[in-house]
Amino acid sequence: MAEVVVVGAGVGGLACAARLAAAGHQVTVYERSTVVGGKLGRRVVERPEGTYRFDTGPSLLTLPQVFDELFADLGGVTPSLVPLNPVVRHVFADGTVLDSCADPAEFADRIAAALGTEAAADWQGLWRRAGRVWDASWRDILRRPVDSPTALAGLAWRLGDLAAVAPGQSLRGLGRRRLRDPRLRMLLDRYATYTGADPRRAPAALAAVPYAELSFGGWYLPGGLGALGDALLERCVALGVSVHTGTTVTGIATGGGRVTGVRVGTTFVPADVVVSNVDALTLYRDLLPTPRRLARLSDRSLAGFVLLLGVAGRTPALAHHTVFFPADYDAEFDAVFGGRPAPDPAVFVTVADDPSVHPPGHEAWFVLVNAPRHGVGRGAVDWNRPGLASAYADRVLSVLAARGVDVRDRVLFREVLTPASLEASAAAPGGAIYGTAGGLLRPANRGPVPGLFLVGGSTHPGGGLPMVALSARIVAEQIGPA
Questions:
Q1: How many CA atoms lie within 13 Å of 424's alpha carbon, on the beta-carbon side?
Q2: What is the C-alpha separation between 119 and 353, in angstroms, rounded?
Q3: Coil, strand, or helix at residue 362?
Q4: Is the four-CA dihedral 149, 339, 428, 69 of positive or negative sign?
Q5: Which residues form the Amine oxidase domain (predicted)?
Q6: Of the candidates 84, 177, 258, 398, which lies 20 to 30 Å from 405 by C-alpha distance?
Q7: Structural domains counted in the chain
Q8: Residue 284 sits in the same domain as residue 352
Q9: Of 190, 217, 244, at which residue does a domain stop?
Q10: Using CA atoms, how far apart are residues 117 and 113, in angstroms rounded to an integer?
Q11: What ranges in 154-304 are assigned the alpha helix state H?
């Protein structure tokens, strides 16, 4: 039996802690925040008209089978999930509306109705290729360690898989070659942002992301996805994990060529194994005895600007998830990755038809736009600059109004969460939503010294709830049973 310390109680940290406890290890979790869940944040607002509950992090769960396996392995059951149809409503600048769904044939019919039969045929061709990418990724990448580009290249892909993955081609390039309708290209581009990346530089292999979402569906957890963190905490406690919130790990100690423990404030806590659920950049830069930044860690990862709105009345034009695209998507990416808030961004609106998250006759809106990271220097914005957040919130509401959804006279209250807010609340450098190491290849799950492991969205296999849960499985398997 190993003494294991997990640094951070995000979904990856909790899932890994529970798996290791179930395998017979003695596990302790330290979390700097007073609550668990990491980026799976929640906000409750009490108002005279009633209570509003917001998810301030993920609002969509995909690949539910990953969580079914996780909770089954932990002796529990997955919290009840509700399938979404549409998964996402896409509203384009010309007013065209396209609802995605988890039935490929039905989605092709919807594309034909909205964009024409040629567009539907193009999408079906892309879909077949994306399916091959997904199959290769699921079999060879997402559930096993990938420690280097050499290891990635050495996987036992068949020639057809290699052709589908198209090494060296961007997601944007794939869309231009396969999709004639610019609106479908825009829809495909958006999936690069799921990894915090620019579609013009993101690998074509990310076509697997829409395939996974639209094959296995998008799901909602009644009451909000924050309850997933509660369910994982309950499993941890039941399995004997000791969880300490409001407790900051200030360093990771090594000796004799391996990990020896962690420092909690000025106190040394011995450990045979340390699992880091903090961002990989923070780990390598701040917590190791000899700080260093991995060359492949990138700060060119999207952050997010969020509005939490209490809205009077109902808005029938909205689905659970609705994205309003700009006329010029490139202008948005040029601005965001150039360190400027985009004046005309894509706007993603989540409005859950769930009476437990809003008062009767009202709505709780989560509004997200891509944003430059918080900080100083090239590509960053100081989001704490007086007046900036409020002015940009006004701009986002004006953009929504210009696209046909003007709720400015119905907003009862608003709260603004900037990249600086996420950096402060979840220790996410610059407020990066999906971890600083955006893209396909991320830092390895095994750290640079024996006994150190990484889980979470900034490490392999990537960001998003199912990928984070898979990283926990990979690490638990590498550590092994007691």
A1: 7
A2: 31
A3: strand
A4: negative
A5: 12-479
A6: 84
A7: 3
A8: no
A9: 217
A10: 8
A11: 159-165, 171-178, 182-190, 208-216, 227-238, 280-282
Amino acid 153: pLDDT: 55
Residues of the chain with pLDDT under 50: 156-157, 159, 162, 295-296
Q: What is the pLDDT of residue 432?
A: 84
d(CA 361, CA 374): 36
Please name the amino acid found at residue 174: L
The answer to whether 58 and 50 have CB atoms below 8 angstroms apart is: no
Beta-carbon contacts of 295 under 8 Å, excluding residues fewer than 6 positions away, are none
**In which residue are the tokens 């830069």 written?**
285
Question: Which residue has 């280097």 as its token pair?
Answer: 148
* 266 and 375 housed in the same domain: no
Question: Helix, strand or coil for residue 125?
Answer: helix
Whether residues 327 and 389 share a domain: the answer is: yes
Rounded to an integer, what distance in angstroms lies between the CA atom of residue 448 and that of residue 443? Answer: 10
Same domain, 333 and 394: yes
Q: Are residues 338 and 379 in the same domain?
A: yes
- Starting at the earlier edge strand, list the strands of the sheet with 452-454: 242-244, 26-30, 3-7, 273-276, 452-454
Q: Is residue 315 part of a domain?
A: yes
CA angle 37, 43, 45 (to 5 degrees): 160
Q: Is residue 232 part of a domain?
A: yes
**Across-strand partners of 4?**
27, 273
Q: In this predicted structure, what is the pLDDT of residue 88?
A: 97
In a domain, residue 64? The reply is no
Residue 458 belongs to domain spanning = 3-40+223-296+438-479
- Give the per-residue pLDDT at 378: 86
